[in-house]
Amino acid sequence: MRQSQLFMPTLREVPSDADVKSHQLLLRAGFIRQNAAGIYSFLPLGKKVLHKIENIVREEMNRAGSQEMMMPALQLAELWQESGRWYSYGPELMRLKDRHERDFALGATHEEVITSIVRDEVKSYKKLPLNLYQIQTKFRDEKRPRFGLLRGREFIMKDAYSFHDKQESLDDTYEAMKDAYSAIFSRCGLNFRAVLADSGAIGGKDNHEFMVLSEIGEDLIAYSTDSDFAANIEMAPVVLSEDRSSEALMELEKVETKHAKSIEEVSEFLQVAPSKVIKSLLYIADEQPVLVLVRGDHEVNEIKLKNVLSAKEVELATAEETKKWLDAEHGSLGPIQVSKEVKVIADQAVPYMVNAVCGANETGYHYTNVNHNRDFEVDETADLRFVVEGDLSPDGKGTIVFAKGIEVGHVFKLGKVYSEPMKASYLDENGKNQIMSMGCYGIGVSRTLAAVAEENNDDKGLIWPLSLTPFDVHLIAVNSKNAEQAALSDEIYTQIKNDGFDCLYDDRPERAGVKFTDSDLIGLPIRVMVGKRASDGIVEVKIRKSGESFEVPVSELSSFIKNEWDKLKN
């Protein structure tokens, strides 16, 4: 395409509200424009990249046996009421009424719609398994949209849903989707990891997030130094590596700690390490009080706690609730002589603590020389804390380190979370009515574009991987007013297109500096410059990623570009 005809409004200055590289560069290079907070238009260059991501997604989804369809963005409230999410999803769900005062939602996700379709159309086990997907705009009223395309209120998503009559079938499809996702993100040139994750508002249990490692990521990933183990920090299991101390048990003693409440204050006041203090926190889990114990240098992982208790809601007790159940204030709580109405659950490291410190359930007092079994009992022990760097990897290979990540994909085993309340059933081989099991598989398509831009840039602009570049070759007539340069550029433009490359031809009557700056900014892989040596049949070829430049005879240009393209592919 001739650049004089391309709608590509570039910016010289960094927009003041763009905080991250991908947002800045996609705006400056004319790939996107903001219409409102968290809402963007994709300009021609951005749409070309988006289209390439979508094609990669389609190819891998089709290869994995999924079928493409399209569902409405406008969804009936009745469907969300059937599943129960109309009341529980929260303010992120955009709700509206039509002229007849009937409630609708703009699709944040499509579990309800697809379940209703399959429920109405599939009646026999002979039609299962079934795997369906779409690529469509989604809407979520984010409280704080930011980072450009990485957290928007309107975005493009690939969502797939599978339906099964057997658990083995769901397991097989789940693994096939994981493999398809790995292929998709590899083809997009991303440095990613599949990590164990929490299902959040979607529901279900077994699930993995696909995370692109990035310093601007909003999620913290725990991964092994020596293996491919990776998990969201909320879900990373802790391997118990405690050895019980051989020190002699000392006599329990109650001491006044005055105004010391936090672990740091109590540790300093009593001159003990935080690891010798039992942190005691009262939670209300589905309206029941639960006292949670962890070592003072550890933090309670509320996701793990919620899963261990199989609770729908888990919240820290208020001051009033704490006073009611333990007759003390926050900062003085402990497990000794706790009412039987309060469940006591301890992290797996707590029983290994010897001569520890804990609150006395009396404001301003603590016990010292506290020991499990002798001084207090617990109803249950479990892995309740966040993993920390240096912990053993759960697979026994290496230790845990942290990295930030951008979530670009998520796969779930939903089970019967939606099919049961929505009565999606089928007749099995014995003619008996059964509820379908489901899987759910999402990719943030527009977010993937931003993640690629975030990962592939330098101080001059974007550097697109070959699989996603909006054009393959950038041809520049350095002085388009020079008849010789213009004629040779026209000839080369035809030649490059005939060789099968998508070429952007900068034929604008702009200064050379402007053309080169724009070229670096939009980041096409190979640049061909027709300049002063046009009369000698010599052009300059520059590789965007490495910055290498070569003088190449026009007669050898076709083979040179092909060779360089093959090198970049490898």
From TrEMBL:
Keyword hit for ATP-binding: yes
InterPro entries, sorted: aa-tRNA-synt_IIb, aa-tRNA-synth_II, aa-tRNA-synth_II/BPL/LPL, Anticodon-bd, Anticodon-bd_dom_sf, Pro-tRNA-ligase_IIa, Pro-tRNA-synth_IIa_bac-type, Pro-tRNA-Synthase_IIa_type1
Keywords recorded for this protein, A-Z: Aminoacyl-tRNA synthetase, ATP-binding, Cytoplasm, Ligase, Nucleotide-binding, Protein biosynthesis
Keyword field contains Mitochondrion: no
Record EC number: 6.1.1.15
PROSITE patterns with a match to the protein in the record: AA_TRNA_LIGASE_II
Top EC class of this enzyme: ligase
Catalytic activity entry: tRNA(Pro) + L-proline + ATP = L-prolyl-tRNA(Pro) + AMP + diphosphate
Domain comment, as recorded: Consists of three domains: the N-terminal catalytic domain, the editing domain and the C-terminal anticodon-binding domain.
Summary of the function given for this chain in its UniProt record: Catalyzes the attachment of proline to tRNA(Pro) in a two-step reaction: proline is first activated by ATP to form Pro-AMP and then transferred to the acceptor end of tRNA(Pro). As ProRS can inadvertently accommodate and process non-cognate amino acids such as alanine and cysteine, to avoid such errors it has two additional distinct editing activities against alanine. One activity is designated as 'pretransfer' editing and involves the tRNA(Pro)-independent hydrolysis of activated Ala-AMP.
Record protein name field: Proline--tRNA ligase
Gene giving rise to this polypeptide: proS
